[in-house]
Amino acid sequence: MFSLVVAADAQRGIGKDGSLPWKLKGDMRWFKELTTCPDTDEVLARYLMNIGLRDKRTHTWESLTARIGGARPLPEWSPAARNAVLMGRKTWDSLPPRFRPLAGRLNGVLSRRLPAGVFHGSHHVWPSLQAALDELGRDPTAKNIFVAGGGEIYAEALRHPGCARIFLTDVAAAFPCDTFLPAFGPEFRETAISPLLDEGGIAYRFRLLERGDRS
Ligand SMILES: NC(=O)c1ccc[n+]([C@@H]2O[C@H](COP(=O)([O-])OP(=O)(O)OC[C@H]3O[C@@H](n4cnc5c(N)ncnc54)[C@H](OP(=O)(O)O)[C@@H]3O)[C@@H](O)[C@H]2O)c1
To answer: 40, 71, 91, 163 — which has fewest CB within 10 A?
Structure first.
């Protein structure tokens, strides 16, 4: 089982010229905390995603973080309990060198061309999503698995029956994009949603969609 984590705009755009079309500090912080903390429920509680689907009030990022200011610190990762973040080779290449590998997480790069293997202190390269999932499934230190893009990898992940959750940051605007998140089916149901946030005039919200049957 794994989760997909993605930020997409109103037209499901996710990328432009090999990078993100927007800069949202709040979303970057959410991505870091969600993918690093081995206790996903704790992150969800912290971000108040259980406040109800109909809450359409607008909050600023500052007002939301003020509300969670008293929360206890998130459980920390350790080498014995850390998450894995899987990404396509192009997304890996797009990470600024100072953020690569993503700290506190097992970094997995999917590539058909790069030699497969473990690059100690940095990242793993796997030749397919399934190869990564199989190996991580045998690794007791790997807690949660997050598929973190880009477009090609999301498309494959959404077709995989092991994709149980989509952590979607819904950006409420249309940006010029050349990479898109494929549509996902009705088997993914919204189970939590944050208030609408605003950062530098860009409105966005965090949503959680979980795989369930259609009845
Ligand atoms: N908004 C978001 O949340 C978000 C998140 C991540 C990325 N992005 C954006 O998405 C864009 C990049 O996406 P992209 O679709 O161009 O590239 P990508 O999915 O990051 O990487 C594509 C590469 O992954 C490898 N690959 C693809 N399918 C594979 C498979 N089934 N098995 C093994 N390897 C496979 C191939 O690498 P080789 O060529 O080496 O074989 C392929 O060239 C960037 O603009 C990035 O900023 C956005």
So the answer is: 71
